[in-house]
């Protein structure tokens, strides 16, 4: 590891975060203020739980309300530090989980912020990894806005979700991790038609060897939610 990752690793340990990835979301929060007191947050690919910690911190004091729901293929224990009773996790495959089941996890019957830190198991084959990354990203977008809002050719046939209603409330925000490739610009174009603003961010805590980049989508337009 280079000096910068060492710094973030040490800082994560010092501040009680379960992973250095906490600083990626902390930077997003500082720049975009996505999560506010009382927000309902869905964290896709939540292992090992660092984003759950930052999301819960961003909700403000317990009296402000709000909820954080984390979903991952792995069973994730809610970190005891920086988290409280507003945080829960679900062990499930996002590709097979219906929107109805996810919606039931939120008292607000939906979410004001959806975070996707999902990433495929990297094979080292660049084109394959990038394609799988886009597939996960499209699933996150489908969950957020509903399949009816997306171009038909972009939906993967393996997704057996018949509920076309999106989980993201109008005005809500969506963060999606992708691996850099030619396809990400098309992904950005789709999001810019659905959100008030969509911009790219490569957080400072990202390892120098990583091709990951985040698309920050702000302000879901009401006409885009199906």
UniProtKB/TrEMBL annotation:
Coiled coil: none annotated. Belongs to the class I-like SAM-binding methyltransferase superfamily. RNA methyltransferase RlmE family. This is rRNA methyltransferase 2, mitochondrial. It comes from Carya illinoinensis. InterPro entries: RNA_methyltr_RlmE, RNA_MeTrfase_FtsJ_dom, rRNA-MeTfrase_E. It comes from the Eukaryota. GO terms for molecular function: rRNA (uridine-2'-O-)-methyltransferase activity. Keywords: Methyltransferase, rRNA processing, S-adenosyl-L-methionine, Transferase. Residues 17-219 form the Ribosomal RNA methyltransferase FtsJ domain.
């Amino acid at each position: 590891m280079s000096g910068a990752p060492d710094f973030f690793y040490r800082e994560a340990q010092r501040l009680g975060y379960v992973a250095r990835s906490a600083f990626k979301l902390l930077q997003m929060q500082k720049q975009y203020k996505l999560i506010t007191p009382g927000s309902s947050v869905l964290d896709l690919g939540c292992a090992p739980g660092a984003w759950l910690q930052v999301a819960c911190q961003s909700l403000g004091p317990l009296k402000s309300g709000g909820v954080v729901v984390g979903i991952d293929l792995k069973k994730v224990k809610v970190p005891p530090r920086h988290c409280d009773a507003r945080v829960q996790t679900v062990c499930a495959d996002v590709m097979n989980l219906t929107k109805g089941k996810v919606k039931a996890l939120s008292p607000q019957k939906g979410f004001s912020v959806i975070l996707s830190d999902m990433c495929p198991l990297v094979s080292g084959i660049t084109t394959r990894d990038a394609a799988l990354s886009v597939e996960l990203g499209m699933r996150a977008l489908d969950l957020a806005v509903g399949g009816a809002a997306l171009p038909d050719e972009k939906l993967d046939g393996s997704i057996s979700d018949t509920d076309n209603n999106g989980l993201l409330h109008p005005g809500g925000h969506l963060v999606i991790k992708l691996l850099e490739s030619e396809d990400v610009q098309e992904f950005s174009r789709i999001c810019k038609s659905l959100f008030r603003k969509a911009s790219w961010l490569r957080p400072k805590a990202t390892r120098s060897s990583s091709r990951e980049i985040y698309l920050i989508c702000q302000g879901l337009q009401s006409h885009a939610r199906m």
